[in-house]
Specification:
Elements lengths: L1 H12 L4 E8 L5 E7 L4 E8 L4 E6 L5 E6 L5 E6 L4 E7 L3 H4 L1 E3 L2 H30 L5 H29 L4 H7 L2 E2 L2 E2 L7 H14 L4 H12 L2
Parallel strand pairs: 1-7
Antiparallel strand pairs: 1-4, 2-3, 2-5, 5-6, 7-8, 9-10
Helix pairs in contact: 3-4, 3-5, 4-5, 5-6, 6-7
Amino acid sequence: MFLVAGLLMLIACKSDKVNIKGTFENCSAKYVLLKEVLPQEIVLLDTIAIFNGYFSYDIDNENITIYKLELNDTDFFSFIAQKGDKIELSADLHSFDKTYAIKGNLETQLLDDSRRQLDKFDKKVKKLSAIFIQNENTEHSDSVAIRIDKAYQMYFDEHQQYLKKIIETHPDKLASLLAFYQRLGRRALFDAQKDRYLLELLAKNLSKNYPQSEYVIDLNNRLKYDN
C-alpha cells in the first residue's frame, strides 16, 4: 500500500512542462528572449524577465522542441527539450564564450558538445586566415597558401568525422539531425545528396523515437521529394 502511494506521488509530482532556469553574472539585461526553432522559421515564444541575474520559467509544450534563448545580439543558448525536462543555464556575460554552461537531457548535451566543437573549428580556421593575410603578397605566399589549404581540409575532415560519429551513435536524437545540417560560414559539413545515407539513418530512427515531431515529418518530406 505504501509502495503504491509512493508511486502515485511520483507520478503526480512529475511535471508535464519544461522548466528552464538561468543564473547569470554581470548581467545588466532585464529580460531574455525565448524562441522556438522550427523547421522553416524561428518564432518568438516569450520575453522572460530577469531578477538579479536569475530567472525560472516553465514551457507548456507537449512535443520535443528546439529552443533558443537569447541574452543579447551575440550571446545565446540552444537546447532541446520535451515535457518533464529540466534545463539549467549559466554564464558570466563579461566572458560568455568561456563561461557558458548548460545542463539538461542527452539531446541538449549532444547539441552543446557539437556547438563547442564547431567553435574550436572556427577558431582554427580564423588562425589560418590570419596567417594567410600576414603572408599575402610576399615571396612565400604561394607555398603558405598550399599549406593553409591542407591544414583547413584536415580540420574540416576532423570536425566532419566528429559529427558523423554523433550521428551514427545517436541516430534517434534531434541533436544528430542538427549536427548533419551544421555549417561553418557558408560551407556545410555534409551534402544532402552525397551523404543521403546519413539522413536516411536519421529518418528511420527519429521516426521511431519522435513519430509526431514536425522536425521528423519535415525530414521525411525532404527525403521523399528529393528522391
